[in-house]
Automatic annotation (TrEMBL):
Keyword Transport: yes
Alphabetized UniProt keyword annotations: Exocytosis, Protein transport, Transport
Pfam annotation, one family: Exo84_C
The name this protein goes by in its record: Exocyst component Exo84 C-terminal domain-containing protein
GO BP, one annotated term: Golgi to plasma membrane transport
Entry's family note: Belongs to the EXO84 family.
Keyword Transcription regulation: no
Cellular component aspect of the GO annotation: exocyst
Originating species: Trichostrongylus colubriformis
Exocyst component Exo84 C-terminal domain location: 117-221
Entries under InterPro entries matching the protein: Cullin_repeat-like_dom_sf, Exo84, Exo84_C, Exo84_C_1
Stretches for region Disordered: 88-109
Length: 223
């Protein structure tokens, strides 16, 4: 352990075994000692602003990937709990001898699990939207609508997310340059809109786009 003077009336000691720094008014006065946590830092120098931006972008991407993995694990855990509880309730309903002894307890457990899942759902949908994982987002919307437990505040948040998803899918159908996948990606967007109950709306968007393309083609031929 090394001691060094950091001020006229203050002394510091630190140990190589930890990252704490002990401050005291004079050597040996343990009763006046206070400890601080020391966070070690590393500095990296980049050769140019472009390299610096590349490093920062990669760090942000890594943080997003870690967050996404954590959300997926939490989502699968909550979904597994919901399924296991619902299976117990279903077995209890299928067995007349035990159906009358379990419903209140299991139903309450189902409600608690579903409520916890619903409260996590807006953040999960935000993550799906950020990663443009719209297939997973539509699946989560379906599960929300099939959920028997309702919470007005959460439902309002989820409705906002559903509208955001519809808007993204609509842009994929409406704008020629919005989709980086050609006709197949556009068809996928129409299919997802149909799964959300917007099949007529999706077809209307598609027909409008086709009409605009045909008018542009006729105009080019006429010129």
């Amino acid at each position: 352990m090394a001691m060094r003077t950091i001020d006229r009336d203050l002394y510091a000691t630190n140990s190589s075994q930890d990252d704490t720094l002990d401050i005291m008014s004079s050597p040996g006065k343990e009763k006046d000692k206070s400890s601080m946590v020391v966070f070690r830092c590393r500095y990296y120098r980049c050769d140019s602003a472009r390299v610096k931006k590349m490093w920062l972008d990669e760090l942000e991407r890594a943080k997003r990937d870690i967050l996404h993995e954590g959300i997926l694990v939490r989502q699968s855990t909550i979904r597994g709990k919901r399924i296991s509880v619902q299976e117990r309730v279903k077995r209890a309903e299928d067995t007349p001898s035990t159906a009358n002894s379990l419903p209140e307890t299991d139903e309450g457990e189902v409600n608690q699990e579903e409520l916890a899942w619903l409260q996590e759902l807006p953040a999960e949908l935000d993550d799906c939207i950020a990663h443009r994982d719209l297939d997973q987002a539509v699946e989560l919307i379906h599960e929300w609508k099939q959920c028997s437990t309702k919470d007005p505040n959460t439902d309002a948040q989820l409705k906002i997310r559903e509208n955001q998803i519809v808007q993204l899918l609509s842009d994929d159908v409406r704008r020629p340059g919005a989709v980086h996948g050609g006709p197949r990606a556009m068809k996928k967007a129409r299919t997802l809109l149909s799964q959300l109950g917007r099949g007529t709306y999706a077809m209307d968007l598609y027909l409008r786009r086709r009409s605009a393309l045909q008018r542009a083609a006729v105009k080019d031929i006429a010129v």
